[in-house]
Amino acid sequence: MNTIKNYFPEFQPYHLTDGKELLKLDKLLDFSFPTDYQEFISVYNGGEGSLGEDYLALWSIADMLDTEQFYKKEDPVFFEKYWIFASNTGIFRYAFEKSTGRIVEIDPYEDEYAVFMGNTLQEFLINFANKKL
């Protein structure tokens, strides 16, 4: 997975998936991940590390599924719009916008806040790394 090695050198992967989590994820998705993210999650099942001036956690499949179940119940409007897959050390979350597939930075406390971060995992990692705090 060249994207991770090239753009996220301090990346520490989580445990590898046994395949069951990936099948569960695929059944629940009502949109498509970018190809490079699908490859990433299939191999690494998430991970984290310093990137640019911040810290990035790319969530495991289990963490994504737990979060989506919470939002499906507690905030169905949010659930219909976003799929959260990552977070930084602060308040921001990173999500796929289900209607477009774009990756956006969201603030869970500001409904209207959504900053475009890329269309692919590679673009997202580059933009995250270059973001100034």
Give a verbal description of the structure.
The structure is a single chain. With 133 residues, this protein is of the alpha+beta class. It has one domain: SMI1/KNR4-like (3-Layer(aba) Sandwich). Helices cover 41% and strands 29% of the residues. The chain has helices at 2-7, 20-28, 35-44, 61-74, 76-81, 121-130, and strands spanning 12-13, 47-51, 54-58, 82-88, 93-97, 103-107, 110-118. Strands 1-2-3-4-5-6-7 form a seven-stranded antiparallel β-sheet. Strand 6 (103-107) and strand 7 (110-118) form a beta hairpin. The longest helix is centred in the middle third of the chain and has 14 residues, at 61-74. The radius of gyration is 14 Å and the shape is globular. 26% of the residues are buried.
CATH architecture: 3-Layer(aba) Sandwich
What is the helix content? 40-55%
Structural class, by secondary structure, is: alpha+beta
Radius of gyration, rounded? 14 Å
Main sheet strand line-up? 1-2-3-4-5-6-7
Number of helices: 6
Tally of individual domains: 1
- Rough shape? globular
The percentage of residues in β strands lies in: 25-35%
Spell out the CATH superfamily. SMI1/KNR4-like
| Elements, N to C (H/E) | HEHHEEHHEEEEH
How can the largest sheet be summarized? 7 strands, antiparallel
Contiguous runs where pLDDT drops below 50 for at least 5 residues: none
Rounded mean pLDDT score? 89
Please report the first level of CATH classification, the CATH class. Answer: Alpha Beta
